[in-house]
Amino acid sequence: MILTVTPNPSLDRTYEVASLDRGEVIRATGDRMDPGGKGVNVSRAVAAAGRRTLAVLPLGGTPGAFVAQLLGEQGIEVAPVDVAGQTRSNISVAEPDGTLTKINAAGPELSAAESELLLATVRNRSLGADWIACCGSLPRGLRPSWYAELVARAHAAGARIALDTSGPALLAALREHPDVVKPNAEELSEAVGRPLATVGDAVKAAEELREQGARAVLASLGADGQLLVEDSGTYFASAHVDAVRSNVGAGDSSLAGFLIAGGSGPEALASAVAHGAAAVRLPGSVMPTPADLDPSAVTVTADVPLDRVLTEPVE
Question: Where does the record place the Carbohydrate kinase PfkB domain (predicted)?
Fold first, then answer.
């Protein structure tokens, strides 16, 4: 079982448009509504793979009730933490070439009591979890050290932690040695304070995060592929994608694929890339099922192409 923690969930509506023309009336060619937030998406991807998951998240108001309803309809068990503020609503606009424009609301401000209740709920519901995936930004009211406290408490209870966040929250949590952290290229660059131009630059940055406490780093490099840097070695994987329909939740699907496959080693990395590649071919934040995956399209190697220039370098 994979338990997910989403401190700042959302109700997400995605519109597909022929083009995004500022100041014009635009008619959508398709739209959908999904429960959102990184951890929520991980749970949705785990459930789509036919595996058990439990989503722990603060929910408030009508949007929060709708998020719980949508998750229930997808067969996902929810452990809600009632909060006074309303769950945020986000909008994404997807264009045919894969360009995605996102408008994310701030979300509610959690009180000290709500913060502690969220931590307590994770502890009380984590018995039997193979992994706890802590994902996304922290809402107002939670200090940057909140994830660090969660990692410390989870480790004390014997659980393994996967952490997908960024900025001060990521850096603060490293001292508690999360089992795997999953930054994208931009977040990795921000964490080490310098640009990334090549795959080798990303490897060095991942090694620095390990020196600061991360036990393993699963780094997404966008269209170039993914890196895994862990005790057993450094691995690079990629998959060709003919057309990107939407990359909403693709990184979360990738993390789910990694954890489903055990959360370490080249096989788990291959699963991560297969899930991410399948997700970008689907509309909105639809999560891939096993039928959507193409493992044969994934290439994994320990001979990392250090000199390869990134398709989208991070300045």
Answer: 14-290
